């Protein structure tokens, strides 16, 4: 078990590093060859993509991760298939609702945002589906296959970006967004057909029961995702509304350089959360909590080392970016603080997910989200980008305290 855990972690980190590199190259590509406003618009769409993936995770993938270990062996695979069918329903419904909303309000939206919204509708289903593939393969303890899927996607996608460059494609932000989603969809469907062990016919008999079971905690998880997204992504819309898309581009350019840390955090969660769920299902609560603390220590160490490397190489980074991004140095510093605070918050949040205490996450996060959005709005209106990011960091620390106390109370209630 210990050896497989180490091997799985290594494959997971390799896959997440590849995904991090792909996202980093995408951002650099847009910063170098698209206008600052186009990169800012891409940031708006990417934020919405994070929301859709979060919703799908809350209702389907996270529920599958924490519920599947408690299923009998002869039902577990079919259960995962039923959750795949549930995901198709969620994605289809979301796409229809969004397209209807865009069509209804098209006259009241500027053309640049209308085009962005239509391309987003084309893009997000694929991003959600490939995320399901990753979570399913991690759950079946097949991280090596996750790495293969990541290599396949990144190879095709980055080759497409090179093609865009040589073709002199206009509206790069729209082309990149659409290519990302369509290629992800193709790779996801191939992976499901090649790797999935479930029979859709057998899984179809379980789908309504699986939906009902996942909704009990999924509803609270959905609320938690919504307020978490609001707390972490509201700055984009506040800055876009009050200071313009170009300011969003500057904030996101600094955050982009710290993206590998965020993706390492996600990778560790994907690798270790299923194992924590198995430990918890077998009554090994001390080992579950101990694993969560070890993951946090590893993540904070990665943040410290990576931030130091960024600081040492800040002069070269500034030479690489154009003069339009002259505030990048200070933004890197405050984003490093914010990412560390997010890591501290992620530890009790993952424990509460493993223990299926999604209500605690939602109620606590709702409080901090309101405070963060209010503070960020004031900073965006009367201050600068650094004030907005520091408001988010303080909100993450407050949420970490509230979630940890909530987890302790939940343990006391369990006796």
Structure in words:
This protein is mostly helical and 415 residues long. Helix content is 89%, strand content 0%. The protein is built from 15 helices and no strands. The longest helix has 36 residues.
Which features characterize this protein?
mainly alpha; globular; 415 residues; 89% helix; single chain
Largest sheet at a glance?
none
Binned, the helix content reads over 70%
| Poorly predicted segments | none
Number of strands: 0
Order of helices and strands: HHHHHHHHHHHHHHH
Number of continuous helical runs: 15
Percent of residues in beta strands? under 5%
**What structural category arises from helix and sheet content?**
mainly alpha
Mean pLDDT: 85
Report how far apart the termini are: 29 Å
Q: What's the assembly state of these chains?
A: single chain
- Principal-axes shape call: globular
Instruction: Output the radius of gyration.
Output: 21 Å
SSE diagram, text form:
Layout: H1 2-33, H2 36-67, H3 73-105, H4 111-139, H5 143-167, H6 172-195, H7 200-204, H8 207-242, H9 245-257, H10 259-281, H11 285-312, H12 314-320, H13 328-354, H14 358-382, H15 385-414
Compose a concise summary of this entry.
With 415 residues, the protein is mostly helical. Helices cover 89% and strands 0% of the residues.
